[in-house]
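Usage

Read records sequentially. Each one opens with the input sequence:
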Amino acid sequence: MRRAALAAVKPGGISTRGSSRNRNKNGFYERAGPLDPTLFLMIHSTAIVHPRAQLDATVEVGPYAVIDEHVVIGPGCVIGPHAHLTGHTRIGSHNRFHTGCVIGDAPQDLKYGGEPTGLLIGDHNVFREHVTVHRASKITEATTIGSHNFLMAHCHVGHNTRLANHIIIANGALLAGHVIVNDRVFISGNCLVHQFVRLGTLALMQGGSAISQDLPPYTIARGDNGICGLNLVGLRRAGFTAEQRLRLKRLYRLLFGGGGQLQTALAQADREFTHDVERVLLDFVKSSQRGLCRDSRQNT
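and closes with the structure output:
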């Protein structure tokens, strides 16, 4: 590797190398694109970009950032100071990586043997300071980050994890390998998620909670493997009507609030709750392999 303004970009983009003649007073290289004079490259002179890395012409790279050989970065992305992008990592458009991010590094898996595994990132995501996201442990799979997600400082996303869209992961939260997080989940600060756990859509984890079992959609995790009702604020913000919320409350009480057999409750729920939003919860519960977080108030 060598320091360069930009070693390579995607086919049809602009390829250039920096020189003192096109470096501005802040240390960034700038060059107008031949196809569109409004486009320019801003790669800091201290950044290290591999000659075969592929960057769109509109990507900005800050001081001391490192971008390795197999990284592909789409339009409008901003790579902050000291960020490190590595592995077979493909990044969509308009993502922002803040200071010290490590994205696409090797999985923390003793079985990993150095295979060229992947990480896929969608569009409009924010990775705050020192976020770590690891690539997959197997060639046949990939760690995936959807779009419009906000990963706050010092959180970790383990290998083979799959994040959907519009997810918020707060400071210091840790997701182990093979975790699945569905749309609009909110994971609060310092939460812990065990490997192979699923988090259902619009679920919320209270700060410091820890789960090693599946977290049902629409519910709030509290403590260790406990839930304490529905995420009503999240449901309202997502546009669920009062009638939908009322029916989900009834379904929640049937499944988790009675202390009876779950299979009996599911059989009754199948007859009474047939709307789409209700089926999301029912189908999630039926497909659980690890078991489910249960209402912690039933044990008090």
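Summary fields computed downstream for this record:
- The chain is about 15% helix and 25% strand.
- Residues 156 and 174 are 5 Å apart (CA to CA).
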